[in-house]
Amino acid sequence: MSVVNMEFLIEKWLERKISLDRIEKYYQQLRIERRKLSKDINPEDFRVSCVQRQIYPVNSIEKYIDMLCGFMEQAVKDNSHLIIFPEYNFFDLFGLIPGFSCLNQILNKKAIKNKDKEKDRENESHLKENNHFLITVFKGVAKPIEAGIKRIVSLLAKGYGIYIYSGSYILKEKEAIYNAGSLFDPEGNLIGTQKKMHLTDFEVKLGIKRGNKMEAYSLPFGKLVCPLCMDATYFETFRIAREIGADMVILPIANLEEYNLWKALRGIWPRVQESYLYGLKSSLNGWIAGMHFTGKAGIFAPLSMTEKKDGVLSLSPSYEGNHLITANINIKRLYEAREKAEYHEDKNVEFEKEYIEKTYNIN
Question: In sequence order, what are the beta bridge partners of 279?
C-alpha cells in the first residue's frame, strides 16, 4: 500500500471515529454543571492549573473526553481560572487506528528491552526505523484530530466556564505539518493558535515545519504567550515575550528522553529567572510507539516571589504519572518584583546588535 493511500485511509477512518456529531452527542450526555466564572477576575489573585499526564491509548473518543474531564473537574474544584494541557496531547488517539494497539506494544517492548544496551545508539537506530511509519501516521491523523480536539476543548471550556489551553496537536496546512496548540475562553471561543518555533531533531526528521511568529494574548488576568517545549531552551523566546508585553508563559512539554534534573533545568526555570515572567509548564509522559517521554509539570516565578526563594510555586512530585498542580498568580507582585530587581533588563545595545547580526546572519 502506498504512503498516500495509507494517509488517506487513516484520515477517513478517524473522521468517522472522531466525528463532531459524535463528540457533541457525548458531551450532551455528560450534563456538566457550568461554573459561573466572574468576568471581573482579580489579576492580583487568580489560580492556574497545569496538567501532567501519562499517555494511555484509547479505543473511543468518549474515553479520551472522559480523561480530559477528570483533570477539568479537579481544576474547577481547585477554583482555577485556567487549565493547561501538555504537548502532544493527542497521542492517546492513535489507539483509534486499527492495529495500532498491537504494534504499540511490540515497539514499546522492543525499546524497553534495548533501553540499557548501548542506550544512545540503540534509541537513535530505533527512532530511524519508526520515522517512516510515524510520518505517515502524523499526516493522516492531523486534520481529524485537530478538528476533534478543538471541538472538545471548546465545549469543555464553555461547559466548565474556564480558560483552556488545548495542549498541542498536529496542524496541517496544505502539505505542511506543524506542532501547534490553541487557547480557548470560557465561552468556548478560540483565542489563538501558536505554532512551535524551535524543533527537536526528531520533529525535523518527521517533516514538521517551524512557526516563525509568537503571539501575545490579553486575558482579564494578564497577557500571555504560548510557546512549546523546545522554545524555552533559547533565552530569546522569553526576551521576545517580555518585549511584547507578556506576564505569563504557557509551556506545554513532552520530553523524548530519560528524566534528568540538570537537563530539565535548561528549559523554563532559568528563562523565568532571566525574564521576570510567570512560567506555567504542563507535561506528557509515558511510552508510545517505542518512544519514552518524561517530565514534571511546574509553576514558576522569580526567586524573590517564592516562599523558599527557589523560584517554584508548585511542582509535580514525580516525572511520571498523572498529577494536577495548581498555584495562585499575582500580576501586581510580579511588576513589583521587576521594579526591585537591581540588574533586571540591563542591556548592552552595541553587543546585542552584533550578537544578533552574527548569530542570525543579518546583514
Answer: 249, 300
